[in-house]
């Protein structure tokens, strides 16, 4: 059976982008694959969270995975910092990674820009972020990694590290993992402000629908979404901000709703007010039950504790096997 691994950083409530880009695939994949899902708390240290905030966000993300349908009986759920084999293999992989390729990584360049503009320092962990992510994946020899489109460059680097290790040790020890989405293409859930992707760290919090948003907040955010002056020619191509609204509708609305608004757009009778009202309501219908379930699961600390205890152990067992094998191939099996 193929192995699947993915995770997210505990940096706050998840949003529709995280759900459709990653977590919904976690749920589907647990039926067919040997799945590991984790909370990337070390990764979140690259952007300086406060201790209290980090502590709560880890528990919230764990509750969110479960509330979204990740079943701890089917998938292994664990916390990255509970698996000491990860930082050990990270040290080894830091010797494989080149400074130049890390500096060229698009997410590093973006983070340097945003950390600088908010007067925050750029730590070495930010530079080696892709190394740690590669280790997360390779430590379970994962083949498939359910993530959104924004993680593609990181996956490419993971494959480079795997191939480099294999070449240096004259082995085929690590597989070449691939980014995965059930819809074939990796997903980019657009933001509500006309451009870019939905993101936790967006400058404009109104552009992202979080699973912590109350119904009235969701309706208000969608109402404020950017639109243009309306189509003036039949079957006219949609500008980005309008296409984005249709892309969001494709995630939460019925086929009939989508067909209706496609038709009114194409014959120039569309009323954006109605479209946004319907989209807002469909988002509420989608988000509200999950939001309430997250609150329930989050309140059950015993359940969360039990889930990670079992998950951490299973993850360590697999990680330890891979790490020992890697060290042996590197000649680090002295006196055994
Ligand atoms: P964010 O970018 O909001 O901080 P994370 O980096 O924690 O979110 O991402 C967790 C997962 O969610 C990753 O697999 C990432 O690819 C996916 N993801 C985040 N935003 C989107 C989006 N707008 N569309 C699709 N997938 C996304
Ligand atoms: N970089 C991912 C993100 O920002 C989080 C992550 C860390 C991850 N390690 C991973 C995702 C391993 C998939 C596999 O969302």
Feature tags:
globular, binds adenosine-5'-diphosphate, 336 residues, 3-stranded parallel β-sheet, 14 helices, Tyrosyl-Transfer RNA Synthetase, Rossmann fold, two-stranded parallel sheet, 5 strands
Explain how this protein is built.
With 336 residues, the protein is mainly alpha-helical. Helix content is 55%, strand content 7%. The chain has two domains: 3-188 and 300-329, HUPs (Rossmann fold, 3-Layer(aba) Sandwich), CATH 3.40.50; 205-295, Tyrosyl-Transfer RNA Synthetase. The chain starts with a strand and ends in a 7-residue tail after the last helix. Residues 8-9, 11, 17-18, 21-22, 147-148, 150-151, 187-189, 197-201 line the site of adenosine-5'-diphosphate.
CATH architecture of the largest domain: 3-Layer(aba) Sandwich
Corresponding CATH superfamily of the largest domain: HUPs
Shape: globular
Sequence stretches where pLDDT stays below 50 over 5 or more residues: none
The computed structural class is mainly alpha
Report the average pLDDT across residues. 96
Unique ligands: adenosine-5'-diphosphate, tryptophan
Tally of helical segments: 14
Arrangement of strands in the largest sheet: 1-2-3
Biggest beta sheet attributes? 3 strands, parallel
Strand content: 5-15%
Sketch the topology as an H/E string, one letter per element.
EHEHHEHHHHHEHEHHHHH
CATH topology of the largest domain: Rossmann fold
Alpha-carbon Rg, integer: 21 Å
**How far apart are the first and last residues' alpha carbons, in Å?**
31 Å
Number of domains: 2
- Specify the CATH class of the largest domain: Alpha Beta
The total strand number stands at: 5
Helix content: 55-70%
């Amino acid at each position: 059976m193929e192995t699947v691994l993915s995770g997210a950083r505990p940096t706050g409530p998840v949003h529709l982008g995280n759900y459709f880009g990653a977590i919904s695939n976690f749920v589907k994949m647990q039926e067919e694959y040997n799945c590991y899902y984790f909370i990337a708390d070390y990764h979140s240290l690259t952007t300086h969270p406060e201790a209290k905030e980090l502590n709560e966000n880890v528990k919230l993300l764990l509750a969110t995975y479960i509330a979204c349908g990740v079943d701890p009986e089917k998938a292994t759920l664990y916390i990255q910092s509970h698996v000491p084999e990860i930082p050990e293999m990270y040290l080894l992989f830091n010797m494989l990674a080149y400074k130049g390729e890390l500096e060229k990584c698009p997410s590093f360049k973006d983070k340097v820009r945003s950390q600088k503009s908010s007067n925050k320092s750029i730590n070495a962990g930010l530079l080696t972020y892709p190394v740690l992510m590669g280790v997360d994946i390779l430590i379970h020899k994962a083949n498939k990694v359910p993530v959104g489109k924004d993680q593609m460059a990181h996956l490419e680097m993971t494959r480079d590290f795997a191939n480099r290790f294999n070449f240096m040790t004259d082995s085929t020890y690590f597989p070449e993992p691939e980014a995965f989405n059930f819809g074939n293409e990796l997903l980019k859930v657009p933001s509500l402000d006309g451009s870019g992707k939905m993101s936790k760290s967006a400058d404009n919090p109104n552009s992202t629908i979080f699973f912590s948003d109350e119904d009235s907040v969701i309706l208000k955010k969608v109402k404020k979404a950017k639109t243009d002056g309306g189509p003036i020619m039949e079957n006219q191509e949609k500008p980005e901000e309008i296409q984005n609204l249709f892309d969001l509708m494709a995630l939460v609305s019925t086929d009939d709703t989508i067909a209706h608004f496609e038709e009114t757009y194409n014959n120039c009778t569309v009323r954006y007010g109605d479209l946004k009202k319907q989209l807002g309501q469909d988002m509420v219908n989608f988000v509200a039950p999950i939001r309430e379930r997250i609150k329930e699961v989050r309140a059950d600390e015993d359940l969360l504790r039990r889930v990670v205890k079992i998950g951490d152990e299973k993850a360590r067992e697999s990680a330890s096997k891979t790490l020992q094998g890697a060290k042996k191939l590197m000649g680090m099996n002295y006196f055994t």
